[in-house]
Design goal:
It is a single chain. The protein is mainly α. The protein has one domain. It has twelve helices and no strands. Helix 4 runs parallel beside helix 6. The two termini are 14 Å apart. The mean pLDDT is 96.
Length: 299
């Protein structure tokens, strides 16, 4: 993409989303960049909702499962947070679902990412038994998103207490996805002083965490500083040096492919899942690059 202007790169990303992404990402793009109402995102999410209040049907494309999973609820909340909207019936139904899952798990409010039901359906290899364990992943991220959306529910209070109990332990788990969820929690929890102190511990832990990629030239799969501060006004931008962020923005800009989309660094379970994920990753790249002033929207 070296010969394209930055405005042309945005136009190419838009074209990729319109051609290849699923309806949810097309609705999100329209709401983020083209003035479309956020209700379109809510309408798209309704197609993934199950009667138990949870979300299913491969909302997270690496698991091709129709049943409700907490990870699917997290993806739904991320979509709502992206466009800053809440459908209260939809969200409170999801909270009721999470509360039932937490009661069954019996871990003080924590929920697991998934359940053994996923084994009956195609899935990426990393979705295995370890994802059936309740913990900070995805509990912290779920609570953080619900706080961001201003949702009150008894499960939020219970899960918040659980998260603080885990964050008060001497050592944090050394896994980047879990720590990402912790930062979402800390960004939106009311206690700023306590959350800032905990966030400093997260950054120290990231240096030793699995699936963490601080070097922008590292082509392996992993989360990066831009995963933790995806927007220019992110609270956690200050946790990383501007030089580090700039290097990752440079890498993100040049990673755009000839078809306008961004690549993946892992293996989804099907060709359809690859395109679904590329739509998600491309939308995220466009939002980050526009927010940090690296892409222009008028191309």
């Amino acid at each position: 993409m070296e010969n394209q202007s930055v405005s042309g790169q945005f136009a190419a990303g838009r074209e990729f989303i319109l051609r290849q992404a699923r309806l949810l990402e097309r609705r999100l793009f329209a709401a983020c960049f083209e003035g479309a109402p956020a209700t379109g995102v809510v309408d798209a999410l309704r197609g993934f909702r199950n009667d138990d209040g949870g979300f299913g049907h491969s909302l997270e494309p690496d698991t091709r499962c129709p049943a409700s999973l907490p990870i699917y609820v997290e993806v739904a909340l991320q979509a709502l947070a992206t466009v800053n909207t809440v459908d209260r019936a939809l969200v409170l139904g999801a909270c009721d679902y999470l509360a039932k899952v937490a009661t069954t798990a019996g871990c003080g409010g924590a929920v697991p990412p998934a359940f053994p039901v996923i084994e009956a359906y195609p899935r990426a290899v990393h979705w295995a038994e370890g994802t059936y364990v309740p913990g900070l992943n995805p509990t912290a991220g779920l609570v953080g998103l619900l706080n961001q959306l201003g949702v009150e529910h008894p499960w939020v209070d219970q899960a918040t207490a659980y998260c603080w109990s885990q964050l008060d332990l001497p050592e944090l788990p050394l896994e980047a996805h879990l720590l990402h969820g912790v930062l979402v929690f800390l960004e939106n929890v009311p206690d700023n002083e306590r959350s800032s102190a905990a966030a400093a511990r997260v950054v120290e832990s990231l240096a030793k965490a699995s699936s963490w990629r601080e070097d922008p030239d590292d082509a392996d799969y992993g989360l990066t500083p831009l995963s933790m501060a995806p927007m220019a006004d992110s609270r956690w931008r200050a946790l990383f040096t501007e030089d580090v962020l700039a290097a990752h923005l440079d890498r993100l800009l040049r990673d755009q492919q000839a078809d306008g989309g961004w690549p993946l660094t892992w293996d989804p379970p099907s060709e359809a899942a690859v395109l679904e994920w590329r739509g998600i990753v491309t939308l995220g790249a466009l939002r980050t690059l526009v927010s940090y002033g690296r892409l222009k929207r008028d191309g």
